[in-house]
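Quick illustration, no need to memorize.
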Amino acid sequence: MVMTVMDTASRNEQRVLIIDDDAATTQTFAVILRLEGYQVRTAITANDGLREVSEFQPDAIIVDLRMPLINGFGFLYRLREQNVGQKTPVAIVTGDVSLDDDALDELRELGADICFKPLWTDDLVGLADKLLSH
């Protein structure tokens, strides 16, 4: 992917939070987005992610659907109840291709885009760009 200086400059001001209980996934996503010029923070639990939302105030959030204790749905419900993060664009990523229509509708009602794993570099960067263009 060829980036212009303007693309990099505008991305340098954009903050993305990644939440996934798989540390390897979280770190891989963070490295890719940092190389593209984004400011990135990570969390491995929904509760840690909610704390990061308050402290970091991300412009976009990418969160895994299947996490222990509080999953992506629980994170979204809690996020939408907060003043900070209430309108933050969110993408739910999941490897679960068997989500039924009710679950997909619920995620959309909560204001989340849905993206299925695996995510390749271009997919991830495109997802971040899409979230930040809202």
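Helices lie at 5-12, 23-35, 46-56, 72-81, 101-109, 121-132.
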